[in-house]
Please model this.
Amino acid sequence: MTPQTVGAEPYTYTNKEAGYSIMCPTKPLGVLPASVLNEDAKGSVLVFANDGYTINKAWIIIPDGFAKNDLPDLSKLSQKDEELLLARLRENSAYALVDIVPVTAKTKSVFAVTAKDIMVDTDGDGEPDTEATADTQMAVVFLRSEKGRAFKIELIDNPEITAKNVSEFRAGISTLKDL
Model:
């Protein structure tokens, strides 16, 4: 499946330094270093829509975005082990949705959507005590490429996450190539 925005030509973005390519629904308006959003991040932000300095739609691609031991090879898990992993991820996360989804015929990913309402610890005692509402939500994918490299890929979709943009995002991820 090719990611496609109506009336636009798909575009293959290649990052030779980081060693990957991905097909985008359109050519990004700009590409920023991921450190612009998170000073420790090493990757790229492909910006598709913005309003001044506000990013309305972007993909954040972080090669080597998680430690290899943080997530098993999902394509080799039994159904029972998948269910156990999902239960653990759902219990210990700030995600409203967490699932294991196929990316290609050979690879699977953890697909998650950040929660809109979360409990936070406001008094520093280690226990969440106040509900906070996030301004936005993001879709996040954790996957290993066919070469085994750990990628974290995020969708920024402001002001509201849409099914169309999630569909394009998932289609784009299915084209990720580890060069």
Notes: The chain is about 15% helix and 40% strand. Residues 5 and 35 are 27 Å apart (CA to CA).
